[in-house]
């Protein structure tokens, strides 16, 4: 059998097919869901945090105190938001598929028939034609100029010739020619399905905000139990001891007081505010054609300090365009060469590079060629022969060869000129002319070839690539280019967009050891001939070296690396598998959107850091109050509903607006440490202030309702001051926000319906004076704490000098 013929074979019989189907050796493959619905529900509902809130909520309902159970709304909202974002991630992963062909062509019982992809079996004989997608891994047994595009799988941009004995991978596309191949791996064992299965492993994006908040919740959840026992025991003794409280029914109020102390300790609103800030950021980015598939990715890109870029589809648009012609011989020697280039550009079987010649060379010879040898990626040239002049008078007679200079002229006579052009990032071909006829059977070059012209092509560079890379450089974000293409070509393109990359590193020389690999990655910026597994290994090595890594790409060959990266970014024009595993998708493919994503992430993380200090201060003082009032056997001075109102005025409502305000401060690691460095001392001051007030009021004989009214007023005043301190500088919308909260405070204490619901009474002069005195001392102490906190932050972190936390 010659290379230009397809070998015939009867293929499998019906009985052999049935036997393989029965044995499970078919291409049928049902991919497991990335994560079950029940596991998502369990992870977001059946938590210790939710268990505590649910228990408190249920106790209040059983006691008939639904007015004090308002905190349950925040817990429900947190659970819903967390579940919804994980369901969205699951839906994207479940759609992931690399094989899109609805049918496959196989030879069975001596005839060619179409079957469903799932019905292909091991040892089936696939019949491959232009446009087909290979349904299973197979070995070529017959080839007639069979060429496959494996770029989405391997990253190689050129079509690959396949000869008998070569392997073809499932998911690749037949670009030209035809052939037959015997299936060697099917179903779950095939390349495409193995890649999809690995990419579908569920994982949430790494989020410092989320992990820090989870750490706080975990600590609080474990100390809630002992504190609850301490407080409940104290409240029972406040009502005369266990026996007296149980017989009189006062144990109900003791339980309510205990729940008030416990709920105040849990930063319910912080989780909700973080989710809302992420969601609003995602909506704002969606207006700029940026799809955020997981909310925490908005924050994640603000933390990135190294971004890996795939060349094709990211720096370049993925298309080749004509660059220039470089004549090497006088027109008298071969006057028809431009019309020959026009023929190459207009022939029906022209590849992507040759088609670029159609526009600059429109006048092709009218006479049909008498012989031709199609392009082959193995020999890297094609040839055509014309018999005489065309009607336009352009003499195209003779044999013409278009191909790689080093392949057409192995004697390197063109080495200097072609290498100089290639080093500038241009794809270079030579057009050569000879008088000897073409030998189509031998597919050999004519012996008398002379170079006529060099023709150069270039990849279309994205117009926004250079500006975006300059932004990352200015922001201190390192860049690595990793591509499946030639290292020198990739390096030249990197230089054209402003990167200092004298040479590219051939990935075939990369070490496998992660530590050694990380060292190479620190020394070089550009890497070529990178395989999909190497892309993933590069991301892993960088992460192990302490980097926060973003990865962009559009091909299936990028999917594993995008999935492994801290933040994966895909182009809308990319493969479905790549978009499914990415955290962020650029819907219009514009690389220039990434600075907007970074800015949005910085706004979220900087604002949530400010807001977190409000919530964590509350957690600290609530814990301190519970311990103090439990240890000194004092009645807890708040009802749950009163604490809910205080939270709304001093934390919840202002935090909602503060979390969404512009903030361009650069991200600096250590969010939780900085927040606690203010929250702990401030919370201690608030707890001591309330304890001193309650102790003094109790000694002065102030009644229970007035005690609670004064405690609520004191806590509201101090809380509003903490809000003011953390909102500085106070300008613009902040004045309106804080002013509105103060107006709310006046309304809470003056509207009869509200005061009745909150069980407030008019404070006496003695109570008012005590509240004023303790407030002034507490405010002074908080000012000192903030001053010391700012000095600590500036000493331990490097913020932009123009901004403050």
From TrEMBL:
Pfam families: E1-E2_ATPase (PF00122), Hydrolase (PF00702). It is an enzyme of class 3 (hydrolase). SUPFAM superfamilies: Calcium ATPase, transduction domain A, Calcium ATPase, transmembrane domain M, HAD-like. Residues 99-198 form the P-type ATPase A domain. InterPro entries: ATPase_P-typ_cyto_dom_N, ATPase_P-typ_P_site, ATPase_P-typ_TM_dom_sf, ATPase_P-typ_transduc_dom_A_sf, ATPase_P-type_domA, HAD-like_sf, HAD_sf, P_typ_ATPase. It is a multi-pass membrane protein. It is found in: Cell membrane. Its main location: membrane. The chain crosses the membrane at residues 43-63, 219-239, 259-283, 620-639, 645-664, 676-695, 707-726, 733-755, 767-788. It comes from the Bacteria. Gene3D superfamilies: Calcium-transporting ATPase, cytoplasmic domain N, Calcium-transporting ATPase, cytoplasmic transduction domain A, Calcium-transporting ATPase, transmembrane domain, HAD superfamily/HAD-like. The keyword Lipid biosynthesis does not apply. Keywords: Hydrolase, Membrane, Translocase, Transmembrane, Transmembrane helix. Its EC number is 3.6.3.-. GO terms for cellular component: plasma membrane. GO terms for molecular function: ATP binding; ATP hydrolysis activity. NCBIfam families: ATPase_P-type. This is Cation-transporting ATPase E. It comes from Agromyces terreus. The lineage of its organism: Bacteria, Bacillati, Actinomycetota, Actinomycetes, Micrococcales.
């Amino acid at each position: 059998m010659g290379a230009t013929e397809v070998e015939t074979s009867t293929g499998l019989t019906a009985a052999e097919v049935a036997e393989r189907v029965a044995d499970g050796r078919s291409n049928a493959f049902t991919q497991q869901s990335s994560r079950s619905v029940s596991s998502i529900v369990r992870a977001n509902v059946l938590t210790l945090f939710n268990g505590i809130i649910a228990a408190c909520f249920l106790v209040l309902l059983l006691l008939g105190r639904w007015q004090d159970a308002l905190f349950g709304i925040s817990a429900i909202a947190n659970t819903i938001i967390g579940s919804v974002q994980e369901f969205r991630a699951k839906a994207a992963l479940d759609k992931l598929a690399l094989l899109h062909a609805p049918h496959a062509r196989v030879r069975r019982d001596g005839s060619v028939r179409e079957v469903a992809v799932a019905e292909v079996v091991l040892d089936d004989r696939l019949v491959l034609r232009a446009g087909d997608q290979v349904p299973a891994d197979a070995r070529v047994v017959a080839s007639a100029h069979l060429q496959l595009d494996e770029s989405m799988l391997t990253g190689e941009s050129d079509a690959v010739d396949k000869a008998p004995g070569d392997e073809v991978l499932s998911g690749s596309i037949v670009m030209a020619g035809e052939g037959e191949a015997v299936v060697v791996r099917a179903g779950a064992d095939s390349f495409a399905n193995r890649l999809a299965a690995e990419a579908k492993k569920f994982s949430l994006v790494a989020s410092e905000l989320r992990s820090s908040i989870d750490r706080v919740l975990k600590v609080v959840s474990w100390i809630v139990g002992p504190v609850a026992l301490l407080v409940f025991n104290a409240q029972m003794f406040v009502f005369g001891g266990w026996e007296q409280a149980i017989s009189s029914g006062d144990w109900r109020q003791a339980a309510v007081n205990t729940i008030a102390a416990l709920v105040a300790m849990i930063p319910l609103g912080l989780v909700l505010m973080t989710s809302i800030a992420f969601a609003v950021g995602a909506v704002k980015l969606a207006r700029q054609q940026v799809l955020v598939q997981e909310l925490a990715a908005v924050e994640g890109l603000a933390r990135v300090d190294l971004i890996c870029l795939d060349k094709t589809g990211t720096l370049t648009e993925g298309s080749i365009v004509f660059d220039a012609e470089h004549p090497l011989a006088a027109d008298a020697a071969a006057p028809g060469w431009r019309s020959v280039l026009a023929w190459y550009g207009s022939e029906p079987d022209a590849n992507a590079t040759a088609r670029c010649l159609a526009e600059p060379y429109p006048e092709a010879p009218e006479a049909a060629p008498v012989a031709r040898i199609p392009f082959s990626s193995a020999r890297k040239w094609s040839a055509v022969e014309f018999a005489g002049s065309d009607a336009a008078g352009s003499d195209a007679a003779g044999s013409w060869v278009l191909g790689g200079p080093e392949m057409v002229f192995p004697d390197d006579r063109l080495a200097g000129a072609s290498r100089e052009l290639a080093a500038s990032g241009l794809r270079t071909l030579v057009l050569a002319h000879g008088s000897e006829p073409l030998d189509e059977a031998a597919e050999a070059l004519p012996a008398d070839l002379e170079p006529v012209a060099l023709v150069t092509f270039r990849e279309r560079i994205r117009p926004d690539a250079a500006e975006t890379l300059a932004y990352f450089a200015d922001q201190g974000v390192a860049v690595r280019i990793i591509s499946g293409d030639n290292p020198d070509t990739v390096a030249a393109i990197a230089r054209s967009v402003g990167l200092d990359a004298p040479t590219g590193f051939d990935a075939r020389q990369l070490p496998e050891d992660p530590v050694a690999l990380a060292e190479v990655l620190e020394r070089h910026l550009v890497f070529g001939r990178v395989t999909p597994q190497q892309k993933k290994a590069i991301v892993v090595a960088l992460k192990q070296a302490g980097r926060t890594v973003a990865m962009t790409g559009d091909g299936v060959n990028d999917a594993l690396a995008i999935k492994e990266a801290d933040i994966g970014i895909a182009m809308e024009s990319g493969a479905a598998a790549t978009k499914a595993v990415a955290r962020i998708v650029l819907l219009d493919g514009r690389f220039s959107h990434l600075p907007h994503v970074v800015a949005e992430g910085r706004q979220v993380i900087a604002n949530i850091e400010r807001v977190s200090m409000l919530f964590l201060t509350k957690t600290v003082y609530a814990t301190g109050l519970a311990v103090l009032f439990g240890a000194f056997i004092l009645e807890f001075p708040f009802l749950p509903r009163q604490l809910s109102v205080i939270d709304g005025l001093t934390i919840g409502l202002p935090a909602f607006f503060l979390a969404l305000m512009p903030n361009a401060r650069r991200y600096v690691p250590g969010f939780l440490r900085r927040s606690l460095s203010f929250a702990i001392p401030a919370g201690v001051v608030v707890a001591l202030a309330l304890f001193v007030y309650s102790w003094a009021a109790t000694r002065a004989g102030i009644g229970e309702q007035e005690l609670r009214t004064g405690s609520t007023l004191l806590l509201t005043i101090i809380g509003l001051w903490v809000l003011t301190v953390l909102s500085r500088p106070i300008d613009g919308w902040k004045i309106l926000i804080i002013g509105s909260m103060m107006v709310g405070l006046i309304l809470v204490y003056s509207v009869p319906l509200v005061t009745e619901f909150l069980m407030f009474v008019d404070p006496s002069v003695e109570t008012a004076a005590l509240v004023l005195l303790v407030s002034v001392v507490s405010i002074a102490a908080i000012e000192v704490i903030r001053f010391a906190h700012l000095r600590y932050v500036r000493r331990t972190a490097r913020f932009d000098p123009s901004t403050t936390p």
